[in-house]
Model the fold of this input.
Amino acid sequence: MYILILSRTFDTSTANVIDWLKHYKIEYFRVNESNIIKVKKISISSNLFFEIEIENKTINLEDICAFWYRQSNFKIYSPPLEIKKSFVFKDELLHNLKNERKKVIDFFHFKLLQKRALGDFFNTDLNKLIVLDIAKSLGIKIPHTLITTKKKELLDFIDIHGEIICKAISESISFHDDKLGGITNYTNCLTKDVVESLNSTFSMSLFQNKVIKKYELRIFYIDNQFYPMAIFSQLDTKTNIDFRRYNYDKPNRKVPYNLPKLVQDKLHTLMKMLNLKTGSIDMAINDKNDYVFFEVNPIGQYGMTSIPCNYYLDKKIAEYLTHKGI
Done:
C-alpha cells in the first residue's frame, strides 16, 4: 500500500512532504504533469478493477491507501491516429476523443476521493462571488462588492465608500515570455480622478471598498485545524494594497496569530459548505477590529505561513495522509 501524490515537477511543498513520508518509511508514488498514464484495464462490475501504468510501473487502485491532490492533472496516453485529410470532421473527432479521456480521468479522481484524500480536483476553481455570498450568509464580514461595466455606477460606488480597489473576478493572470518579459495583474487602488478618465463603459470588472487594514491574516486550514499568521503588510507602501508586490529588501513582519473561536466556527462552517478539507484563507483586521474575509484558495502556497510561524505544515500533511497526528 502506498500514497499517491499528484503534483507539478518543481513544487517544493510536495518535495518537503515526501521527505516526511520517507522519514516515516511510508511508500509513495508521485505523478507530475509530464508523466503519461496508460490505462491497462477498468472493470466496473461486482468488483471494481482499475489498473494503470505510469513510468513502466503498474498501479492498481486497490493498492492506494491515500491520495494527495496538490496540483496539475493526470494525462492519459493516446496512440497516434492516422486520419485522412479528406475526413472533414477531424477536429470534431479529436475533440470527442479528448472528452473520452477526460471522463476516464474524472472517474479516477472520483475513486481516489473515496480514499483518505487531501485536496479535490473537482473543487479547485472556486467561484469567488459564490464564496463571498456564502461567507456573507454566515455572518462573516466581507468588503462591499460591485461588478459593473458603467462609469456612472462606479462613481456612485466611490461616493458611498470612498477609496476603492479593483481585482480579478476569476484568477489573477500571469503571462510570461522569455524574451518579452511578463505581465501579472495585482489588486490596485482606484481614485476618483482615474475613474473619471475612463470611458462611459468598460469591460465587466469587480470593485470593492478599500479595507483600512491594521494587518492581514493568511490562515492555512487542514482537516478542521487552523494555522493563522498575521502579516503586517500595511506598514509598507509597496505591499499595503496587495502583499504579493513583495518587498524582498525589507520583508513584511509575519507572526503566529490566535484566531478567536467565533471566527474559527464561522470559517469552519464555510469550509464545510465549500466541501474543502484544506485551503488558504485570506482575511484582514480593519481599523475597527472587524475580521474581514477576502477569499479562500483550495491550493494555496502554505510554505509562506508554515516557515515564519514554525507550524511544520509539511509534517502535518504527511501525518494526515499516514493517519498520524492529525
User: Anything to note?
Assistant: The chain has three domains: 2-121, 144-209, 213-312. Residues 213-312 form a domain with the D-amino Acid Aminotransferase; Chain A, domain 1 fold (CATH 3.30.470.20).
